[in-house]
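Let us work through a complete example step by step.
Step 1: write down the sequence.
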Amino acid sequence: MSVYGDKARYFDVKAEIAKLDEMLKHSGGVRKVPVIVEGKNVTIGYGGS
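Step 2: predict the structure and record it as tokens.
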């Protein structure tokens, strides 16, 4: 379980190409996980950038 509890949704971007495209839109093309989207805030990677 993540710190987000049941509010978090996990997507396997290797298995779901549409979710990979969505992730890349949120991340500005950065291929780094996790990509966490909270409203208008986007956090990329474990260190958060």
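Step 3: interpret the result. The chain has a mean pLDDT of 89.
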